[in-house]
Amino acid sequence: MYRSHVLVCGGTGCKSSGSQEIIDKMQEEIKKNDLSKEVSVVQTGCHGLCSLGPIVVVYPEATFYSMVKPEDVEEIVKEHLLKGRIVTRLVYEESMTDDGSVRSLNDTAFYKKQRRVALRNCGVINPEVIDEYIGTGGYEALGKVLTEMKPEDVIQVLLDSGLRGRGGAGFPTGLKWKFAMANEADQKYVCCNADEGDPGAFMDRSVLEGDPHALLEAMAIAGYTIGASKGYVYVRAEYPIAVERLTIARRQAMEYGLLGDDIFGSGFNFDIEIKLGAGAFVCGEETALMTSVEGNRGEPRPRPPFPAVKGLFGKPTILNNVETYANIPQIIIKGAEWFSSMGTEKSKGTKVFALGGKINNTGLVEIPMGTTLREIIEEIGGGIPNGKKFKAAQTGGPSGGCIPAEHFDIPIDYDNLTAIGSMMGSGGMIVMDEDNCMVDIAKFFLDFTVDESCGKCTPCRIGTKRMYEILENITKGNATLEDLDKLEELCRYITENSLCGLGQSAPKPVLSTLNFFRDEYIAHVVDKKCPAGVCKDLLSYFIIPEKCKGCTLCAKVCPVGAIEGTVKNPHVIHQDKCIKCGACMEKCKFGAIIKK
Amino acid sequence: MKSLEELKAIREKMQGQVGVRSEDAAQTRVVVGMATCGIASGARPVLTKLSDLVQEKNMTDKIAVTQTGCIGLCQYEPIVEVMAPGKEKVTYIKMTPEKAEEVFNRHLQGGQVIGDYTISSVK
Lengths: 596, 123
What we know:
heterodimer; A: 596 residues; alpha/beta; 5-stranded mixed beta sheet; 4-stranded mixed beta sheet; 24 helices; 14% strand; globular; B: 123 residues; alpha+beta; 4 helices; 4 strands; elongated
């Protein structure tokens, strides 16, 4: 038995900042100090605070070390593990109190308002060891369902819990399962959508990497409930760590007989196959996903028939996303009432968000539904860097919209977000400050949609391209007010006529920014100015002669030789040569260069 | 896996170990002095003994066994402090693995402070 556990984060964020090296070094040092029998090194999933990685947590003290480097490992082992002295210089600043002692992580601003349900095991267990999952109560929900509950009971629990799909649209999960259960067929399927494609979103990846068994367990529960013996996890190949851990988890579950034939002696058989996606965004759309699993090119098809009637291989199928599944075992064990006690009237439970953009604590947070944007950004997220002003938060990725500062206190749930023209989406949240140009943001998402449109239906294939061209004209100062009307008309047309969710929601980033930031569009079109100073074609760099000391630095860094001047005399930028790269402004020590 | 009993057996085996990774203000903290003085007078076997016992009995959710630096009473090492929420700190001195086991059985499990081993027994 080990008296101390050293948890090293093995999520993609920390891995890419070198956590594997830390694990190796840690094991080596522990061996050197003869602590191998006392201290165990555990690789876990994501802790959430990705901006501070690599993260190392030492239990039982629950000491949270951040930004650990391989050369710090020796000190941690010699001081902390051997002598019990916490290495305070490495401790996460927030968890230090003024008197130099270490406070509980749950009292830090980042974790205080979080409630970890889907992420409960992420950063706690080793995802590659099934026994650790079982040690935290894993597979007990499956055991309970198979031995004590009828399929109708499971559905009732889910309906009572109020769980809604975490993938975007928020359809009640219990209802989805009920439809699939009601349809008679010789074969049914359970599918998991792990094709997380929104730029900046990594909630599902973290669950797969940190707690893969929770997904497998929930899918088996789903199989029993709707009467399916086969499940598919559709996961993108760009998530190599997730794929590897999922594969290990599946093998271990098979070995233990928690997947396979006659699980818990109940006569229920269930097998799961892992399908790799090639990374097409459209394959996150349910019908396209199933077409891809079938081995065809990933293109959507019209609904109805809905998957619950005619899904994978033409059989009744349910499709849920990873986070939705991750909630289910705990709902079964702790009860519908426990789950529905969290959240708002129509949105129960918690939601995981991937915080990114202009925010101090970039990372993964899980909060009860109904938490306000202000709490997420100012408290949990630690505010906006460099004292800049909040402008908007983008949720739902290319299918969502913005929440502007005027809605800073809106409680985040499905219906509130829809009401203001955004959507929950899978949970990406990109924070923007005063330096972000909203037209440019809309253009960024449209660029993404144009790339990812599968091309099957005309409104999406051609319409998004035309929208992109108009946006490009706006950012270049070549658009007229008529173009804005045309843009809005296109938005309406594409929304109404596209075949699948990708096209139907593609205009949302434009509509939402047009709605909340119309003045910025007008500034681009009428005044030919970009208020945030982002759109290069509408900007010029100038040197203020009074401030320029003639140090020649700007002339030296200018890549195109557009700056002229002699030593100790004010310099001048030749506008015809300037490519607006901003290098001169960055280098000027006197603040003599401005853009306008 | 053919029965719930098998699952339960694994859970019980693992619960104590995974439970080390919990953090709860309501936990009783058992702190062993592990500075040079403590280590030199044999604090490590005391620490491992206490840690093992707590895990074996699946009490990691209630008790956290941790280490600390020099308490300042080097002549009385190995020192073990027991801090239960809402109760006064109890300091045991000159611990051995055997005495530690006794502390675990009588104090941590039974709630009975062993007066003979505490620092207040020193005259």
